[in-house]
Design brief:
InterPro entries: AAA+_ATPase, AAA_lid_NorR, CheY-like_superfamily, Homeodomain-like_sf, HTH_Fis, P-loop_NTPase, Sig_transdc_resp-reg_receiver, Sigma_54_int. GO terms for molecular function: ATP binding; sequence-specific DNA binding. This protein has 20 helices and 17 strands. The chain is about 45% helix and about 15% strand. It has helices at about 20-30, 45-55, 70-80, 95-105, 120-130, 135, 150-165, 180-190, 210-215, 235, 255-265, 290-295, 300-310, 325-340, 350-355, 365-375, 405-415, 415-435, 440-445, 450-460, and strands at about 1-5, 10-15, 35-40, 60-65, 65, 70, 90-95, 110-115, 170-175, 200-205, 240-245, 265-270, 275-280, 280-285, 310-315, 345, 380-385. The protein has four domains: about 10-135, Rossmann fold (3-Layer(aba) Sandwich); about 150-220 and about 230-315, Rossmann fold (3-Layer(aba) Sandwich); about 320-385, Orthogonal Bundle (Helicase, Ruva Protein, domain 3); about 405-460, Arc Repressor Mutant, subunit A (Orthogonal Bundle). The protein is an alpha/beta fold.
Amino acid sequence: MKSLNITDGRPRVLVVDDEPDIRELIRLTLERMQVDCLEASTLKEALVLLEQQGPRGIQLCLTDMRLPDGNGMDLIYRIQRYYAQIPVAMITAHGNMSSAIEALKAGAFDFLNKPVELQTLRNLVSSAVRLDHSAEITPACDPGPELMGNSEAVEKIRTLVSRLARSLAPVHIHGESGTGKELVARMLHHRSHRCDKPFIAVNCGAIPADLMESEFFGHRKGSFTGAIQHKEGLFQAAEGGTLFLDEVADLPLDMQVKLLRAIQEKSVRPVGAQKEEYVDVRIVSATHEDLATKVEQGEFREDLYYRINVIELKVPPLREHLEDLPYLAAHFLSQMALEMGRPVPRLSETALQRLCQHRFPGNVRELENVLARAITLNESDVIEAEDIQTDGRSVPTSESVMVADDLDAICQVGLEAYMETVERQILKRALAAADFNKTAAARQLGISFRTLRYRLKKLQMD
């Protein structure tokens, strides 16, 4: 255990590895970056240094997975519990992605592959130092978008976004179309230490297959017909920031292989280039489809699935937090009235009731469109129920289970809607009781896994 040339005011990195050559390589690289290095060869030595330096004395911990008296996971758990503000990066054997993913799920900031690539190391250390100064960086940034609503579901997302903003772990956002997945991705970016760097969003289903590699990784002049100049790709454009892969399930299998390598190696090779270029981006992906099912069907690579789905963030459909609807409606009407240069209209009680009875298969986006039609066609200060025009595809529903013998209440919404409500709540309870394991939930309900999947899809709960 040793510390060399410790200078007050300079960032400090704790390096925990039982290989002296690795520690020396990292130390020499850090010294060139004006970063001090604390070295430990065992878990015990690392814990002593942590106690000596305290939570503010170390800006980053780099630890090997295997140590003589324990493993790196033990150190990650210890730091998460007692020194939560210190980011930890795991050093793993080349190709051992299972260890890296395990570390990221446990709260690790990032990971390094052996042999350690110096540029990747420099990028990681720079990100950690920026994280330590995020209190200075973030206030100067554009605050970005905000998720509207005060329901428990929305508050849960806000809390999770705040926690995930400190990490570099890939996040996969799952939710139905129109729920606001890109908005959540932008929140993640704007609340992170990367907020002053680019946020690049791409719809993976909108890029022609033959242009995909060039779009993602760039190309060199003359590399193919029509390549009349150098062009940077989306990874290079997002350097230092966040790359948002929307509808990632639409990627063809051959591109999934190349994307996996880019994420694992943190480098890309432009079309026509001889050398790879290191990139420092955070990957956030999203889809409305069930990626696990796509993996089972052979339509999505399992290794890429586990790599981008390190942390899953679910955005609930609007029908599951209808208590936010009045707040959302008021926000959209205010925004639209401002753009139209007219007074803000209010919703009548019957109009609000009609909205609350709608299932909104298009979620928040559909609500915005319904209100846009209403405010355009109504020039008065009050929007009435007849101004609310839905597409007719959905049926009225109530998320609260009614008493079975309350015939008037059942007749008011219709038997079919009532039965759907009952079935939805039964399925919710079964899934919750089984920790959202669909196989276990199907077993408890006495139905097949395929039947459960069919019911979930029919009720738009998948």
